[in-house]
Amino acid sequence: MRHVRSLPLFALAILATAAGARAERPGAERTLTDLTPPPVAGGLTSEQVAERALSSSLDVRAKREAVAAAGARVDQAIIAYVPRVALTGRYTRLSSIEMPSLGSGSFVATPLPPGSINPTPTAAVAFAFPVFLNQYYFQANVGVPFSDYVLRTSQQLAAASHGEKAARLDEHAARLKAVLDGRVSYYTWVRARAQHSVASQGLAQARGHLDDVRHAFEVGTASKADALRVESQVAGAELLVARAEDFALVAEEALRVAMHDEVRRSYDVGEDLRSSLPPVEGARSLDALIARAFDKRLEVRALDETVWSLREQTKAIKASQLPRIDGFADAYYANPHPRFFPQSDEYKFTWDVGVQVTWTPNDVFSAGAQGAEMAARAAQTEAQKMGLRDGVRLEVTQANQAVREADVAAETSVREHAAAEESYRVRRELFKNGRATSSELTDAESELLRAELEVVNARIDQRVSRLRLEHAVGDDAATK
User: Fold this and answer.
1) 253: closest CA among 199, 194, 185?
2) Which residue segments constitute the domains of the chain, with CATH numbers given?
3) How far apart are CA 416 and CA 318, in angstroms?
């Protein structure tokens, strides 16, 4: 049954007719450019997805608010240099009291003419002070923390400045991550659509093969086992299509989420991905890439700024163990004024100025404990930075290796596809002429399908791996 000369002439005619019909079915002849969806005018591109993902990223929004909070802390530290001014106004209504008398005395009631010898008439009077039931008091106070300017305020400003730099670096890093995730989501969606297209073509091919085998079985040139195996192949192809369709739906939803597109719509591919990228030329030194990543990665620089901020905060806290020296000046405007005696129902102005030294022994212990806590946090952040550097080293190594593998896969998948396609063509011709079994044709179809998926994956992997390497070494830091 495997050779043409063993087949009856009518069977060859039926088989040839079926094979001829098979050759006209969709998917019988597929080129490399057919494996990836062609670009559609007005369709989505990776750049558009990246921009929309960046503008709608919730993580970027949160980081932006963190930058605003850090900037407010810098403003607070700067305001601490301004002398503290306090204004006080007070009105007091006092209860009525009977002011005690301080005794009595006498005075001349009517002056006598010069030379008079008559006794001088006198009048008795009690000495008492007036009681004012309404009191008005206004005070302006200016305090100048001399010691804080030297020991605390400058350190707090430095800590806040480093904190703001760290927040800005974190926000920039979040922007780069949003762009990367948006682009990767786009290419994942394109991969899913291409895989669904290839799987659908493979299913059409398997169904065509099943028709051929059924015709051959009817004329007695194929066994029941051959037909059952192809039926199994068709069932597997149907499952592959269902999985590819589910993958495409999930990938499209992930793309919609990345862009925060509330309108449920279908997208078209607007970027031409039907060809492989040229391989990266020149030797890539892994040590040079890692060194560049340590220098450029914003996450590492953000942790450096955080460590400096914590160290400056530690200095400011430890300064609380020392005495405080403050200058002060006050101005008073009151009615009645408490400094004047006796009091009178009128406004009077006074002022004072001085220097004050304050030391709280309890602060020696509390500030020491707080300083130790802050120093521990600085050491913890330093350890996190070292851990991040280890992660960056591994990320760069993996990304660099992925680029190399993707370039190799892009070249080898083309050769593999060409060989698989030619093998399938030859097997199909041999099967059509009765010189190949159904099993051999099934194997050739499976190899062709696998080769087509490898081509699709290689094209997408080339683009994704380059994006990840660019991000890993920090070369994307100047783009967004």
Assistant:
1) 185
2) 4-93+130-478 (1.20.1600.10)
3) 69
Place of tokens 């068709």: 234
Closest CA to 211 of 452, 438, 450, 443: 438
Amino acid at 74: V
Task: Measure Cα distances from 441 to 111, 213, 227, 420, 437 in Å.
Answer: 149, 10, 12, 11, 7
C-alpha distances in angstroms, 347 versus 96, 114, 340?
21, 43, 11
* C-alpha Rg value of the chain to the nearest Å: 45
What is the rounded distance in angstroms from the CA atom of residue 51 to the CA atom of residue 182?
A: 8
Q: Are 125 and 106 in contact (CB under 8 A)?
A: yes
> Which two three-digit tokens encode residue 386?
């070292």
- Give the single-character DSSP code of 36: S
Residue 281 phi, psi dihedral angles, 5° rounding: -85, 150
Sign of CA dihedral 424, 429, 433, 435: negative
CB distance 223 to 217 below 8 Å: yes
Give the number of C-alpha atoms closer than 13 A to the C-alpha of residue 237, restricted to the C-beta side.
Answer: 26
Q: How far apart are CA 350 and CA 212, in angstroms?
A: 114
Find the Cα–Cα–Cα–Cα dihedral 284, 287, 293, 299, rounded to 10°: 140
CA geometry: angle at 375 spanning 370 and 378, to 5°? 130
Dihedral pair phi/psi, residue 112, rounded to 5°: -90, 155
Q: What rounded mean pLDDT belongs to the chain?
A: 85
Q: What is the DSSP string of 222-268?
A: S-HHHHHHHHHHHHHHHHHHHHHHHHHHHHHHHHHHHHT--S-----
pLDDT at 216 over 90: no
Helix (H) or strand (E) holding 136: strand 134-145
E strands, 6-52, in order: none
Using an 8 Å Cβ cutoff, are 255 and 267 in contact?
Answer: yes
Residue 75: what are its φ and ψ, rounded to 5°? -60, -40
Question: Per this entry, what is the length of the chain?
Answer: 480
The verdict on pTM exceeding 0.85 is no
- Secondary structure E strands in 224-347: 324-335
Of 190, 222, 241, the residue nearest 15 (C-alpha): 222
Give residue 263's pLDDT.
84
- What tokens appear for 105 in the block? 């005395």
Highest mean predicted confidence (pLDDT) among 13-27, 107-121, 331-345: 331-345
